[in-house]
Amino acid sequence: MKKNIKNYNLDSLKEELKSINEKPFRAEQIFTWLYRDRVSSFNEMTNLSLELRKKLEESYTIGEFKIVRKLESIDGTKKYLFDVQDGEGNLIESVLMQYHHGYTICVSSQIGCKMGCKFCASTGIPFSRNLESGEIVEQILAIERDSGIKISNIVFMGIGEPLDNYNNVMEAIAILNNPKGINIGARHISISTSGIVPKIYELADRQMQCTLSISLHASNNTTRSSMMPVNDAYPIEELMKACKYYIEKTNKRISFEYALAKDNNDNLEDAKDLVKLLHGMLAHVNLIPINKIEDGKYTKSTNENIIKFRDYLNDHGIVATIRRELGSDISAACGQLRRQNLKK
Ligand code: SAH
Fold it and tell me: How far apart are CA 45 and CA 338, in angstroms?
């Protein structure tokens, strides 16, 4: 089976070329063709010999996705359903959103998800595999190709748990960061996790400049475990300890996601516990009115409650904002992504 050339960052591509008896400097040429010129075939890489182009063609693919479906929201948000062209008929979703500071893409990190969060539509999808680094990167390239837009920010908030696919996500970020390629700086990339504690420590030790978002959603273990099974493995105390370590190591602010569901996690007691948890931490709380999913038991908190919750946090020294909802009419809002038609 052919390998995806987009799975390599510049350094690993040099090694790969050495292993097939080619000069490592070719890596930079190939990288530029792929990520600056955005060619769709090896044959277009005209500063490589015909022989080398043929050799590459025989062993590698360029890994372009095919758009299966594209939905556009009244707010301009676009949801893409891609065929990853892996011969298995696997499909993934990515979302393009416009904010005042530019275009943001919400990428998927896995095909399906193992985490089982009760409020999330991706839970209905059986996990089939991790996305390769090239497949993570291709989500950005395919959307830029289709829309003619230059993406400025990336959030790992699509389908899957990025820290459960740690190595490929790190490789993809290395490709995205490279100034000779797509050149999106780490500060413009957010990784969102349901709270895989050991990986948060690894991320901290790596001193990455990405933003870390923690899907917290509850301020006590009983409620959090009822919403997120991962809390049984890594309860709130352990999660907060890892977060404090992360902040100490990186000096970066963590963003805590909190999806408000009526009569579940949205009363003043919850807000009080949240203040206790985050007291003194370099943190920001992102409040999301929970999106109801098919057969889901959670419904959005009332606007009045959401504002009360936010004000309580702000009045007690915790910076909290309410996230603007985009794309809900095309099932592209938080937690609504699910791979459509399972297989083609
Ligand atoms: N697995 C990662 C990233 C994917 S989910 C994580 O858990 O963080 C991206 C964000 O959307 C997470 O904060 C997730 O908790 C949130 N989310 C999932 N379902 C939601 C829903 N129905 N309403 C609001 N937010 C939701």
Answer: 37
95 with 22, same domain? no
pLDDT in tens, 66-75: 999 999 999 9
CA of 327 from ligand 1 middle (Å) equals 14
- The 10s digit of each residue's pLDDT in 278-319 is 999 999 999 999 998 887 899 999 999 999 999 999 999 999
Q: Is residue 111 part of a domain?
A: yes
Specify the pLDDT at position 342.
Answer: 47
Q: Whose CA is nearest to atom 17 of ligand 1?
A: 335
- Specify burial of residue 303 (Cβ count, 10 A radius: 0-12, 13-18, 19+): exposed
The domain that holds 17 is classified in CATH as 1.10.150.530
**Predicted structure pTM score:** 0.96
Same domain, 40 and 99: no
**Candidate list 28, 51, 93, 325, residue with the active-site label:** 93
Nearest CA to ligand 1 atom 24: 290
- Is 290 near ligand 1, meaning CB less than 6 Å away? yes
**Pair 91, 108: CB distance under 8 Å:** no
91-99: strand order across its sheet: 66-72, 78-83, 91-99, 102-106, 153-156, 189-193, 211-215, 254-260, 283-289, 319-322
State the average pLDDT for the chain.
94
Q: In which domain, by residue range, is 171 found?
A: 86-342
